[in-house]
Amino acid sequence: MNEVLRRLLFLPEQASTFARDFDQLHYFVILTTFVMSTAVGLTAVFFFVRYRRRSETQTTPHIEPKTWLEALFVTVPLIFFLAWFFLGYREFVRQTTPPIDSMDVYVMGKKWMWKFAYPDGPNAINVLRVPAGQNVRLLMTSRDVIHSFFVPEFRVKADVLPGRYTQLWFNATTPGRYQILCAEYCGAGHSIMRGEVIVLRPQDYEDWLAFQKRGLAEKQDGQPTALDFAPPLGNLVDQGRRIAADQGCLKCHTTDGTRHIGPTWLDLYHRREKLSDGSVVDVDEAYLTESMMDPAAKVVAGFQPVMPSFQGKLAGPEVAALVEYIKSLQTDAVRTGPSQGPSYAPIRGR
Amino acid sequence: MRLSEADSHALAGATAAPTYLHDGTTVMSWLNTRDHKRVGVMFLVSVIFFFLIGGIFALLLRFKLLEPGPFFVEAIGYNRLFTLHGIVMIFLFLIPSIPSAFGNFVLPLMLGTRDVAFPRLNLASFYLYLAGAVLAIWAMVHGGTDTGWTFYTPYSSTTATEVFPVLIAVFILGFSSILTGLNFIVTVHTLRAPGLNWMRLPLFVWGIYGTSVIQVLATPVLGITVLVVAVERVGGFGLFDPARGGDPVLFQHMFWFYSHPAVYIMILPAMGVISETVCAFSRKNPFGYKAIAMSSLGIAFVGFFTWGHHMFVAGQSTFNAGAFGILSMFVGVFTAIKVFNWVGTMYRGAISFKTPFAYICGFLYFLVFGGMTGVALATTSLDIHWHDTYFVVAHFHFIMVGASVMGFLAALHYWFPKMFGKMYPEGWGLVAASLIILGFNATFIPQFLLGNFGMPRRYYQYPEHFQALHVASTAGATLLGFGFLIIFIYLVIALKWGGRSESNPWRSKGFEWLTASPPPTHNFDEIPTITQMPHDYRTHEPSGVIRGS
Question: Which regions of B56-169 does DSSP assign to beta strands (E)?
Fold first, then answer.
């Protein structure tokens, strides 16, 4: 049944944990739509056949609907629409709430390509490798205009905006190759801004990751090559530490918990900060990014708005590296190595 | 059957006053006219002209999409074509089509008045429209604008093509829309004939009234928005561009705050037309008059609070998405009330299957299917997959081309004898109607499936597995094009060589038929007193009488 309807409606393969639930709702909604529009159409046809005009000057009785009938006209569609909405919204909340054990990948869209960066090492262009059966969260930003990350087989999509991070998660079920399409118009190359998700079996993924890391290590240990004049790679936390030093972040922010010109970075991630306007903010990726780009927007109470904007001074991956570095600074585990997976809280109430 | 015609003549005055078409035949007498009917006809000719232009762009797009790879035009040329298609169809055709053309012509006739409240403003609105239209087309062809009709920032504020003149053109067109809306609101409030109280207003007037409220309240926001983008491009302000500290999503909020209600500017008048014609061709009083009238106002009101459903995946909060999703359901409910009441109107009527009735059937089907897919899109989670795919394209073409254009064509055929005193050929009318309804389905049903399949919009090249459905869609579009061509040809022939039609060929009891067809310059020698609800077919009594007689 599922397979027949899926093919009939031209839906792509179901390759993520969302796809099947999404399609079930899709079938329900489309079938209701068909039944309703056919019912309205058939009623009209029936009335036409039954009440054809018999003479040009025919008179007709004056008929007005009873109140209960009008009430029926309101309640029947309302009940259906609300049913759709509640089923749909439950699924929407699930899709917009990444689970706590997700693996993070940073994504940057630019005209007209996708860049992927893993917290513990390799970068990739246009090809995203993920293990099957693992929750993956994408933290996405754009370097120029708005793009949108869309994988039809996973039934996931989210806009990728410049100047802020948006997130999206999925759990791919079936190893294989799936096309990434840009779904927000971004100019002449919009239709060829395509990438690929390669879903690997968990063991294959580990092998690939190990191979990538070995490659990086060899590059750093071996003889100097032209590549060494490019910024040294490494995991995002290391990159972030270096950038923080280069950009002078550490002149105002400490990493050991002491108070300085700006708030300390230790345990900053997911701290609930009181702002100068009295409101409270949860320090997440979005807030950290915003504070680098527009520091005066939300100033932590008790500090002066003296921080300059880093808009234009930091590239997307550098912001990602800084965020990842700040996330690594936790009292219970001040890690220096690669992050051992994400450490953020899900939306409260789940 | 002679009765209604005789009455019309009696009301129009025994002495044959010159019809508005013959009262001065020089070009200047048209260009300087303050007659709402002539302004309406000039609008009608202009919107049909721009509909043809927009249609040609659509066919060129469909032609390119026959091939998945580069073909016929380059990528940038394709992007310009869909921008031209969108801007021409929305700002130059759909928004002014029914209100400015048919609204101008029949609204004062239905109200039993001699003109709109501000005849000069009415003419000014037409010239603003022309100026905006000329500027928009010149700017797009000359500057090669490639932003799409939505002007999303920061693309629109950074693209190398010319955007500024197009934004100014949209600003000017907005003023045309505001002036027409304002004029209609004042006319409905102040110039109703004696006996025509609010609960006797024809349903078309209710539809136009709801539309006018939206035009007056929402269009200024679009004006502000495009002006800010224009200033951003020229003056380097950073309100929407994140590279200068702005917020691109703010633009989307402001844009959709206008552009979602604008959908109801396009559909409410068509709903009004259907409310009139379904009564006239079923010879029945409107079933649930109050429900239809009030749901027009309901849609106009709720339409202001649903704009966020365009942005479910654009980075707004999950809570906002839920709130906008549930508010969008109410538009669906108001529309459903109308649909049930239209079908109810046919119950125990006396139905005559003329061309406008074919369009009523098409309209009902397109509105129900297009509307319900719209509600489906508003269920938030389904939108994640469908957003910015051909599913959305097919959905809004079902509403905007399906429903709105069906309304436009029903109005065109129903009021053609009223406007010009000529009759279109009925046989050809039905042929064209069947072609259009069939061609329309063949064009857009494959696009729903393309959307399911994952084909994003505004794609110049596409993966090859989408090709079969694209070819089907292009074939349908060709059929659709032929349908419109047939209508165009037979209407021109009917205008030039057609026989004179009766004054009220449909024996309709809509108030606009109380005067002769085509009406004399001042509509009524004596203002009628309205004595009945519109479309009361219990008796043959005319629905209004001349004062004192």
Answer: none
